[in-house]
Amino acid sequence: MKRRVLIVGGVAGGATCAARLRRLDEQAEIVVFERGPYVSFANCGLPYYVGNVIQDEAKLLLASPQLFRERFNIDVRINADVVAIDRAKHTIRVKDVATGCESTEAYDELVLSPGALPIRPNWPGVDLPGIFTLRTVPDSRAIRAWLDDRKPSTAVVVGGGFIGLEMAENLAHRGLAVTIVELAKQVMPPLDPEMAEYARQRLEAKGVTLALGDAVTSFEQTESGLRVHTQSGASFDAGIVVLAIGVRPETRLAVDAGLKLGARGCIAVSNQMQTSDEHIWAMGDAVELSNFVTGELGMVALAGPANRQGRIVADVLCGRDSKYRGAQGTAVCGFFGFTVALTGATEKSLLRAGVKDVAAVYLHPGHHVGYYPGAQPIHLKLLFRRSDGRVLGAQAAGEQGVERRIDVIATTIQMNGTVFDLEDAELCYAPQYGSAKDPVNFAGMIAANVVRGDAELAAWSEVETSDAFLLDVREPQEFAAGAIPGAINISLGQLRARMNELPVAREIWVNCGVGQRAYYACRILAQNGLNARNLSGGYSTYRVLYPER
Ligand code: FAD
Predict the structure, then answer these.
(1) Which structural domains are found in the chain, ordered by start?
(2) Which residues surround ligand 1 with Cβ inside 6 Å?
(3) pTM > 0.85: yes or no
(4) Which among 239, 254, 294, 494 counts the fewest CB atoms within 10 Å?
(5) Which burial class, exposed, middle or buried, applies to 318 when counting CB atoms under 10 A from its CB (0-12, 13-18, 19+)?
(6) What is the mean pLDDT of residues 63-84?
(7) Residue 300 C-alpha to ligand 1 middle, in angstroms?
């Protein structure tokens, strides 16, 4: 007998699942219900449509119901809101958004990919005209229309995460002066604070005003537009406001149907994306996922995992043994010619999860060899298990080549790889693309030196309180331009000759510009019986760790 598979939600997870299912099962009857007017649209492209970088709205629409019908024999119903599930009868109730008419549809298997909803807190004035969230094509159309009609000169973006920064860039691209208000003391809250510092610097250099560690309290209508009030007592004029303060899982259907929920109210699923009902499957932003590195349970609102899970559900429905391995949170964000990316655990998430035995190295290599014009630094932080070198996470920031390095490390994490694997990785190289020792190899080598005991690390967190002897091995002119308070300067070239100036009984914490000369110095000192440790990443790292100094 032909089985009937109903899918709720027709974008990232839902559309992927439907298409894969058809490829594996030519007989199944597959029906996709999508509440909105479009299926399979590019939600990730919406900020760029607002910014007019993508000019043609049609480019956002990756597939139509007609294409699904003709190519895949899949019945896609748009403007079809699934309002209830009757688990006992194996039916759903569907409301036609245009007419309000309801109908009942029977299923053998039900797949939920309902996504998430932008958070819109109940702040006074939040419903005033000119305050937007961004999730759908109509949302982006409304923002564009406001910009075209009102021609505002100022914008406030509430939230400095991925979508907030992309919106800031795109609004600035349209000529608006942008302020970002962010509750955390840093932009890009998923990053460790010192890595987010690079993003802060770029945003401010491009004229974005940042109100960090501050919270919006209310909105007020003024003669010229809106005024945004914050907890600190500040206020900002805005011709338009975009709320980008995160999403919450769209779980109304699951809750009403009594499905088991997990962390942050997400739908609890097995590693084969099965819910607490054996005939109901769920995926994407709405489900609870375990972190691949820390095992922490939470929500991961990213397109890659949703797509992957869509394939897994289709596989499993066709008797295959596919399993979701856990989310790494591999993500990238670009703004004003700058890129930040991360994968796996951050130092703060490891701390939160109580993971011990962690070490971090920082490095700042060029994205390609220095002798080829245009080399740009990549600021890279690699986290690994000190005892055996297992790679736990990485974050990077820079203008070029950032995402490529994070992707390599993401794959290594996925394979349970170690810093020795990064050290040995054979990667693309020609002068305009990289270096024979790629930044990823460098990160692996530096970390491997730590694991092997060839290089000891000093704790950046204690640099200003420790009684260690601080040795700066840069050239005098570099030292004169700025140094860690209390550090003594003996350049690497003079070190062997001036060894007698160093204390024998104290730890010596060594820094240079980015960490390389300090490593050489540590090797010299260690082989002369001195207790030397490297301040990883050197003065470049100090500057982002202690930006206010
Ligand atoms: P969605 O793709 O959101 O699809 C859910 C669909 O279900 C919605 O269309 C909704 O209308 C429909 N639906 C919900 N309930 C019902 C119901 N009861 N009946 C019928 N239909 C229903 N991720 C990245 O990895 N990289 C990026 O660069 C990136 N940029 C983004 C930019 C923006 C502006 C946004 C909004 C998201 C971005 N994301 C990005 C996140 C990514 O789009 C989501 O993680 C992904 O789309 C989640 O897939 P999903 O299938 O769970 O939900």
Answers:
(1) 4-116+248-317 (3.50.50.60), 131-245 (3.50.50.60), 337-452 (3.50.50.60), 460-545 (3.40.250.10)
(2) 8-9, 11-14, 33-36, 43-44, 46-47, 81-82, 113-115, 134-135, 163, 250, 253, 284-286, 301-304, 306
(3) yes
(4) 494
(5) middle
(6) 97
(7) 12
